[in-house]
Amino acid sequence: MGEPYPKVTAHDLTRTFGRGPRAVDALGPLDLTVAPGEFVCLVGPSGCGKSTLLRIAAGLLRPSTGTLEIRTSSPRPAAMIFQDYGIYDWKTVQANVRFGLDVQRVPRREANARAADWLARTGLADFAHAYPAALSGGMRQRVAIARALAVEPELLLMDEPFAALDAQLRTILQDELLEITQALRTTTLFITHSLEEAIVLGDRVLVMSARPGRIIAERRPPFPRPRTGDVRATPDFTALKSELWDLLRKEAVPA
């Protein structure tokens, strides 16, 4: 039997920045539930509050009103991966991957073993003692993914992690992430501007409105798991991408 309760629950969640006449309503009101092991992708126009939602889930921001709860037994249930990698230039690849474990005071021998495992899984074992300056963009993002997953988070938060990469590398890392998350079944909230990415990766795709962001539509990609990137070539993929684009186009705000 699976866990009967949602892993993440948001109710009437809002976030406003600033006060008085200059206040900006960035998010909500928004309701959201995410089941244990579910991979949920959020798409929406720029500035709609997607990253704000993720930062509230990570504990980096407080909501203005409403609640967001994570059902967990861990004091640090979430790990976050940013678009700009967020790794430390002065630490080796191994030390970067081990960083979260060091913060949690995991014994060094165990931490090194877990870091080595994730370096192997992400194809970085030969670069354990290299520094980030020697790595390509794709390899840096693999380091960020390995660091987040090494702490075995109950909730993985990903804020456009592949946006800075070229199309070919982005596709490769999408497929790698798909394989990893299907094996681990880590509950994941994933922000992206790429509809293709959302459809390939997500159990659900949630479409957000223009600011203040609300959830205006939900779609479930019709591809069973285990899933591979081959779904990109199917008519169902093309049809869903077109449908999602129609929804997003109505929300787009001219610059």
What does the secondary structure layout of this molecule look like, with pairings?
Elements: E1 8-17, E2 24-34, E3 39-43, H1 50-57, E4 65-70, E5 78-81, H2 93-103, H3 108-121, H4 137-150, E6 155-159, H5 167-184, E7 187-191, H6 195-201, E8 204-208, E9 215-219, H7 235-251
Parallel strand pairs: 3-7, 3-8, 5-6, 6-7
Antiparallel strand pairs: 1-2, 1-4, 8-9
Helix pairs in contact: 2-3, 2-4, 3-4, 6-7
Task: Describe this entry's structure for a reader.
The protein has 255 residues and is an alpha/beta fold. The protein has a six-stranded mixed beta sheet with strand order 5-6-7-3-8-9, sandwiched between helices. 35% of the residues lie in helices and 22% in strands.
CATH architecture call of the largest domain? 3-Layer(aba) Sandwich
Q: How many structural domains?
A: 2
What about the largest sheet?
6 strands, mixed
Question: Into which percentage range does the β-strand content fall?
Answer: 15-25%
Structural class: alpha/beta
CATH topology of the largest domain: Rossmann fold
* Low-pLDDT segments: none
- Rounded mean pLDDT is 89
Strand order of the largest sheet: 5-6-7-3-8-9
Give the end-to-end Cα distance, rounded to a whole number of Å: 49 Å
Number of strands: 9
The value of Rg in angstroms is 18 Å
CATH superfamily of the largest domain: P-loop containing nucleotide triphosphate hydrolases
Shape annotation: globular
The helix content is 25-40%
**Topology order in helix (H) and strand (E) letters:** EEEHEEHHHEHEHEEH
Broad CATH class of the largest domain? Alpha Beta
Number of helices: 7
